[in-house]
């Protein structure tokens, strides 16, 4: 009688996708970060089971895989909202008024930094410099950058994302 | 292309430098820390451990090097000829003090309630720096202690993130459970996926406990359970002491490392109120008889070879988690502790006319993994667990201190019968290579019928990572190997996996140095103290009249009265066991 | 010519905005890959190293270490293979020069890398791009493909017999990976934590092999140096800091963006001529040079020449070339708080003084801003800064106190008015 068993396995499809990512980097030494980046890109986050699977497939202790996954701010071990808002809090944007931009996002969505809206649509994070300081204050929504922000502009952008749930904001 | 310049061989360049005005000449590449020691200056350290690679991360050992604006970490900085070092300048003192204040400003550093009170590197450093107040707001760590493991407690509130446990767990043991997680101020040392220690593939070796400079990782304290049993008049409380405890309990109680205190140990246990004081060495001898015959049987009948020893419970849990496909190689013999436990509640109970249910069986071990071992289902007889509770050397030391016994001046006394007679072969179980040597002493004489020309098997002794030897048993060549520390064990296991292992018999001990370096031993345990305990172990062996397990008269009696024959029916029932594949993660219920 | 253009000299940005970054043909027709051919076909590796040494080029990532010397160390180091890494993990707040170089002229960086590899005998290169720079990743990946099919990467580059190729690696959100040893840890698939030096990367770098690691802008300087010679390069800039520097002007300045000027151009020229001055009729209050880890300079230092050594003399640094201009509407303590939040977020957590210190710096500055601090807190703040700049393991922790130290030096009164008793007496 053994009460324990291995962690629940991933769906075959997920497992295959992870295999494909690993296959891509088979010629590279120590490609762990690349693989985590890509698996995160596909699934939006890195679940415990995905980390265990990557650990087993690469023969790297799970502790190390987990240690790496929790080090980098673009990787997440928890699911996030459909749209990730990253408000730049670096000094150049700070000087240009990023605090009021952040306030506007918080007011509009009713969440704090690190939180996700109850409908799972938005996650709010802060980010280090996005490298677009010439148009600060700036923020990113998913892979898209927005500059010269004002409270009004922020509201407009967020409402467009909220309306268009497919995220085809142009 | 430019030709590669060859360096003249064997010529080590020397560097002469001054440290606080003292001139010293050392080989180039020596660290400032080592060079300072040569002139009698001990630079304080925390992340540095003599047996682990230098890290330079706690920044306590910083020194001034002339010409460098930055302070340099003495534990990593290599000396150069002409270098001028200051280890006690105002800048250095200010830096060390601030670093320690920063450490003390986070977590629970309340010394009197700490398991490492009076044996804590942080405490020592804070004392010498004269820190009386902390200028930063003290923050408590929100995480509770992890008490889930049968062997080890982790208290993140005391952790100073020196990563010595990480190095020993990942590199020395190759288990890879402890690792830094998160970033910056939120960094902590934890388990894979932040699970409880009991839910992950920790082998309970306790090497992390030995290297922890503070009280962030320590043994699960079972002393109260023992005090309670001793106070219960309905119980016959018996105790067994492992081979390695006799050469380390003195050290725990203030004697120099390598002190042999077998007789005082027995006296102390009697003073504590144990009804019978027995010796695990006796069942170590028994293990040799059973395991030796198992080896011969495997060799004769084409059984799975190489056979791997099974005395070390950390090692057993390791192979169950990480190499379950090789479990057939492991000897089915229980460890001496568990053989003892099984016999105590059967043979001894019967002989002494005691109801086994009334026996409370305590064992004193150098080992944290034994605490888990005695809870395994296979280690339970009809009247409950064969061994009820395991104390480490450190816990026993604490109990003796609690009683106020003057250990150093206790009289010597002898173990009780029938598990009191043992041989030198049983004693050397405590050192890496000892089980192998003990087995060879017996196997040779059983197979050849001749007396060994020389009883000492030097090739299997010492602290070398992997040792091997060939033994000629009257024409039958037996090839053996010994590994201690699980990273070394892995090398031999990988050979077996690849089908490249031509050994017959391999001894594996979980902990570096064998049981004398176990996770329950006095702190500090370093390679230096390990070597001293090993020396004491062989000294104890030499001083005994009997040095071969098969010559132990009590063992002969046990077979004639009870077990009948090695590997017989009774042996199988009581002295042998089974293993199982264990997952890397336990499912959360 | 207006003052914006008059003060500029384009070496690194020579092609940016002039050619199509997705076209190797345009790069070649504007003189691209000529330097590579000259180096690989006409020069011995040692001569390439010597030329770069003679040019006096110093690393543009922040530390200003002589590039030629670094190459020489790596060339002489024992070990095979050797690696060349392009550090494109541009995370310094207010810096976006590397991104624009990679996106505007990717081939000049590739060309610089191949020449570096030839000079030191490296067989493989890594180009590590910050995870947030998706566009740069695509542009450089495309450029690498083109360079490969044009024979500027691969087994036998330009018929020279020399072989070298480049792999792009992407970061995942960690400023500290801009530190060379943390970057190598990251390429090795580990947590991006800095290593203790020595050993230096030129001896034991990536996977323990000799490694040259250069910033994007440094590498972009290589082709023109090889092509025009060390003397030409030395004519630009100052004797100890030859060449140009790309600056990113941000904050309260009319012309925000990327500019390239000769080293030694004064802060005043950059702010008032190139930058067009302070908008909205406000006054210049301070400039932070070198990004968040740089020093904060007051108006009295506006005439300082911007080069490695001049800035070091005033406890600041050239760093990555970020220039944050702050006008007199801002409170210094508030601006410093923003820097401290940044370091708190980005400390890797490996060494004690940085892990604990960056957290404490942020709390202390907040306490001051909230008018709850006392003079004793200010002393603790100064002491912590002094300790961190000398005792932290890597450049991140060593530089983190710089904004505090320099503002305490030049703007101390702004701290003092925030102190509890001061604020109270003011209120009374």
Q: What does the model show?
A:
The complex is a heterotrimer of chains A (170), B (589) and C (428). Chain A has 170 residues and is of the alpha+beta class. Chain A is 44% helix and 11% strand. Chain A has 7 helices and 4 strands; from the N terminus they run ααααβααβββα. Chain A has a 4-stranded mixed beta sheet with strand order 2-1-3-4, covered by helices on one side. Chain A is elongated and about 50 Å long. Mean pLDDT of chain A is 89; it is low at 1-7. Chain B has 589 residues and is α/β, with parallel strands linked by helices. Chain B folds into 3 domains: 16-88, Roll (Ubiquitin-like (UB roll)); 104-219, Alpha-Beta Plaits (2-Layer Sandwich); 278-352 and 404-574, 3-Layer(aba) Sandwich (Fe-only Hydrogenase (Larger Subunit), Chain L, domain 3). Chain B has helices spanning 32-38, 90-104, 121-129, 164-172, 207-211, 223-230, 249-252, 262-272, 280-301, 313-322, 336-352, 369-373, 393-403, 424-427, 434-448, 486-497, 527-543, 553-563, 569-574, and strands at 14-19, 22-27, 62-65, 72-73, 84-86, 152-154, 179-181, 188-190, 217-219, 236-241, 276-279, 307-308, 359-365, 380-381, 384-385, 389-392, 466-473, 476-484, 505-509. In chain B, the strands form 6 sheets. Chain B has a 5-stranded mixed beta sheet, with helices on both faces. The longest helix of chain B has 22 residues, at 280-301. The termini of chain B are far apart. With 428 residues, chain C is of the alpha/beta class. Chain C folds into 3 domains: 7-234, NADH-ubiquinone oxidoreductase 51kDa subunit (Rossmann fold, 3-Layer(aba) Sandwich), CATH 3.40.50.11540; 244-327, Roll (Ubiquitin-like (UB roll)); 332-427, Up-down Bundle (de novo design (two linked rop proteins)). Chain C has helices at residues 3-6, 24-29, 34-42, 45-55, 67-76, 97-104, 106-120, 134-149, 180-187, 216-228, 230-234, 267-274, 308-313, 332-346, 352-369, 375-391, 395-399, 402-410, 412-416, 420-427; strands at 83-88, 124-129, 165-170, 211-215, 244-251, 257-262, 284-289, 296-298, 322-327. In chain C, α8 links the parallel β2 and β3 (165-170). The chains are: A alpha+beta (170), B alpha/beta (589), C alpha/beta (428). Chains in contact: A-B, A-C, B-C. The A-C interface holds A 28-34, 36-37, 60, 64, 67-68, 71-75, 89-92, 94-96, 126-136, 140, 143 and C 90-96, 99, 130-134, 167, 169-175, 186-193, 207, 248-252, 256-258, 288, 292, 322, 324, 326, 330, 335, 338-339, 341-342, 345-346, 348.
